[in-house]
Amino acid sequence: MSETMNTNKEKKKPPLNGRRSLPSNNSNDEENEVPEMEAFGLIPRGFNPKDYLSVVDIHMFKEPHEINKQQHHTDKYYSPKLIVRRGQPFQIQIDFNRPYKPETDQLWLEYLIGRYPQQNKGTYIPILVGGVLKPGEWGAKIIHKENNSVRLSIMSSATCIVGKFRLYVAVWTPFGILRTHRNLATDTYILFNPWCQQDAVYLDDEKEREEYVLNDVGIVFHGNINDIKLRSWSYGQFEEDILDACLFLMDKAELELSGRGNPIKICRVASAMINSRDDNGVIAGSWDNTYTYGVAPSAWTGSVDILLEYYSSKQPVRYGQCWVFAGVFNTFLRCLGIPARLITNYSSAHDNNANLQLDFFLDDEGKVDTKLTKDSVWNYHCWNEAWMTRPDLPVGFGGWQVVDGTPQETSDGMYRCGPASVQAIKHGHVCFQFDAPFVYAEVNSDIIYQRREKNGTLVIEKIDTTHIGQLIVTKEVGGDGMMEITEEYKFQEGSEEERLALETAVMYGIKKQTTQDTVYQPQTDVDMDFQVQKAVLGSDFKVTITFRNKSRNYYTATTYLSGNIVFYTGVTKNEFKKHSFSAKLEPSSSSAFNVVIKSSEYLSDLLDQASFHFFVTARINETGKILATQKATVLEIPTLRIKTQGEMVAGKEMSVTVEFTNPLKQTLENVTLRLEGPGVLRTMKKEFRQIPMNSTLTWEVKCIPKRPGLRKLIASLNCDALRHVYGELNVQIQKP
Predict the structure, then answer these.
(1) Which CATH architecture has domain 207-489?
(2) Other beta carbons less than 10 A from residue 649's beta carbon
């Protein structure tokens, strides 16, 4: 009996660790017991706590229209609790049982976070009520006294932990300390503050703060370099329970509470936590076009459903691809108050051995050898930038930092990437942490086409130095347009500065293979290029190959076109079109050849981004030299139409209709529609068994918008035969 008693007792105690007196404090959710009466010794019989100053009530001024949330730009959060930003004063009012007498009454506030609060770790913060507030340091002063009440202005430190604090008011008596009891209503969330100059995430432009912190919808640019497509994404960082879900992410990652005031640490931990590899993080990635037991990445319209599902199930949500990881990461950063934006890099290199070159191996006929070729070019890749100072790096490398939650390669043993300074990447200073070489390669690699001769020597047929990282974009500030930021990442192609940055990167240890040990003598007197006709999904289109013979010689070119259906990551699923022909090239002239692609050739195997990749190689028979070029192309996908009826007033019912016409020559089966709009309606889903060809589907939804102002409705349609179908509508919700 006594033994079992003992083991039970043992279990209750946290495991001790020889190196620290207290267990690690890495959960914002756990609490400790705080005594309401902390006696200094024996309490005399006549002691009655009611004789001393005692707290009757605490007013937090936490309504969206009240002073705190207004001044701290937190009025949009759907949370009944007080939410403030660090390094900026906020107000509370305390009602006592009698008037407060500063001469004799001694009171202080206590803010606590986690289960093992300690003053030196910033997890226990006692604040004496004093006369002056120092900017950016903890303090409290009385600004108004009336009857039994005092109003306090409280300043938090500009470097304090970001999270949910518990508040106690303590009063000193000769026999002990009297405290208020645990009261959930006085819990206070403290966030990063881009409006405060002492905060590491300070951003000095109001328009940018409104976009990168307060905007709850954004745009994802996808498609490819020759055919840029865009879709809206609902970040929803202010929606109910999202703030708690974001704090839960840091608990799940077991990030020490004392490190949660540092945006560098938070970003690094979150970039690992957003994907499910190695830590059971938020989203499971899937790039194989089979999404059984989960939601296809293209069907999501925003981050809210994903974060809430993870918060409740504690299990990875299926499935995501790069823009989903980036969308959720953006929500997390903006929700905590770190300025963030979603970036798209067109023709993004995934360089497996980080040697700044993507090796495409050709066989004798000039076809790509898929077994040997390991590197790939993503049509586009999305990541995030977060804004912060970098006190851990030399001066000049603060500002935008690349963070990427998509699992591509490991960093220090985990799938994560960043924060890497954009400025350091531009100048080739890839020695600065974290993961700058990988990001540098994503935007700067060369494509090398090589062919192995019969005797085993490698012949380089072509070096393409401009294909990778051709265009890097993000949504413009204050609008839905595209803003090009390529020059934030790299100097003008071919400029002196660009060479210098490359030499710097190589000096800092990026492997750049030299091409001296291989033969490279390209055919310079013939140019070859090809164009793909823009086409709607389900129709035929043509590819036009043009040669320009600049020499005085007569040439014949054995030309081979290979059409492949690819994932947007550039990985081939299968070759659906092979076509060879012989081209006669007259001296000093141009000639064009058309190849027709029929819809019946590609429709059965099409993947969700409707992406093709064409390789064209031509061997000049007279010289034996090979010309090679490649391009990705995306089909036009039909869109959803969204309409509204009646007046749109906050608090009144309105009606939204989504329409779609099936353009394919087949019936669509098991179709899922999603519709959401932050502040207007929570995500709604509807399943349709079938949509016959050419027929139109209509779905009507009733909703009650919560917030006035300009809002966005976003819809998606998804089924096995057709994905990436989107629609959106801006709606102006009137004040009641």
Answers:
(1) Alpha-Beta Complex (3.90)
(2) 15
